[in-house]
Amino acid sequence: MSVLALIPAHDEAANIAATVASLLGQTTPPDRVVVVADNCTDDTAAVADSAGATVFTTVGNTDRKAGALNQALGSMTDLPEHVLVMDADTTLAPRFVEAAVQRLGTDAGIAAIGGIFQGPQPTSLVETAQANEYARYARELGRTGRVMVLSGTATVFRRTTIEAVRAARGTTLPGIRGDFYRTNALTEDNEITLAVKTLGLTVESPRECVSTTELMPGFGPLHRQRLRWYRGAMEDLLTYGFTTATRRYWGQQAMLALGTLMMSLYLLLTVQGAVTGTLGLSPWWMLLGAVFWAEKLVTAWGAGPRGRLLAALLVPELVYDLFLQATLVRALLQTVRRREAVWHHDTSLTPLTTQGA
Q1: 259 burial level (CB within 10 Å; 0-12, 13-18, 19+)
Q2: Which residues contact 196 (CB under 8 A, 6 or more apart)?
Q3: Residue 127 CB: number of other CB atoms within 10 A?
Q4: Which of 13, 208, 237, 318 lies 20 to 30 Å (CA to CA) from residue 310?
């Protein structure tokens, strides 16, 4: 079964060699690796070529990653059976492609295989908190099998899935007919997931399909990343409306809002009790806290010793959760006000290596 790998890259000279190497080192390497060099001002194209990839250079693209991928896909008259789309700051577990192709081969009803993302070894508290967050998602995915997103870090699509989405754009699906990705979506991976599910198609994430991607090094880059993620998810839901395919996502947003409200109420009551002198050690309050602590620790167990320690300390993760909730509120306000979104390409991130892939 033939596989084409597409890697959209904007100024990724520091990462692209490791990304290409992780593909060429697969137990079942792609038949062709294409780096889509988009408006690069560095040596991304030259480094990719030296690493063994074919380079496709976009022309006049103003639609960021989605536009770059649409250009590349549109230039190919005969797509292979499977197309892997992955980020340029990501490396793959050695059996990723093999496992994805095998699963697609055994079940014709699966439209795409999404990667289970994780970070490299964290070096700070904020990176460890992100690693714990990713570990919890992987645990939930393994427990329920419910894929919430065809991760932009790495996803393998059937050719027939790409053709179906392209044909449905402008009618059943929002967007321009002939495009695979909707170019005005803030989070193209979230939007393409909704598009595929709206067509009634099934997606999976096998446990072997692990992708390692960058962790945000500080709260500034993390805020910008999550602001785009949260707002993109909200805008996609407003575009698609409440349907059978989106109801679980609406429920997820409702639970996030409820969690934010409950955390705010908890802090308010705690501060009020401390100020008025009425704060006491109620057995029920202590039991609730113990259950919350245990849940944090158990669900972060897969993140390793560093992650378990952070979860056991509890307070740092509470601060992290409050930060994310504040970002969620800001994303909601921007969505309601229809404020123009701004994309950021963070150049402060540590270059990846093939280690840990």
Answers
A1: middle
A2: 111, 112, 150, 161, 165, 203
A3: 21
A4: 208
- From residue 244, how far is each of 112, 181, 194, 234 by CA, in Å? 19, 21, 11, 17
| Ramachandran angles phi, psi of 62, nearest 5° | -120, 10
CA 213 to chain CA mean position, Å = 9
Report the distance separating Cα 90 and Cα 9, nearest Å. 11
Q: Give 313: exposed, middle or buried? Use CB within 10 Å, 0-12, 13-18, 19+.
A: middle
For 103, the 3-state DSSP assignment is: helix
Alpha helices in the chain (DSSP H): 16-24, 44-51, 64-74, 96-106, 125-144, 159-168, 188-198, 219-240, 247-276, 283-299, 305-313, 315-337
Which pLDDT tens digit goes with each residue over 139-148? 999 999 999 9
Residue 47's CB: how many other CB atoms inside 10 A? 21
Spacing of C-alpha 305 from chain mean position: 24
Q: Which residues contact 330 (CB under 8 A, 6 or more apart)?
A: 227
Domains of the chain as residue ranges with CATH: 3-115+150-215 (3.90.550.10), 219-347 (no CATH)
The per-residue DSSP string of 251-287 comes to HHHHHHHHHHHHHHHHHHHHHHHHHHT-----HHHHH
Return the closest-CA partner of residue 169 out of 191, 202, 187: 191
Q: Which residue has the tokens 């057995």?
A: 283
Query: Using one digit for the tens of pLDDT, what is the confidence trace for 299-327?
Result: 999 999 999 999 999 999 999 999 999 99
Give the C-alpha separation, 36 to 65, whole Å.
9
Q: Give this prediction's pTM.
A: 0.91
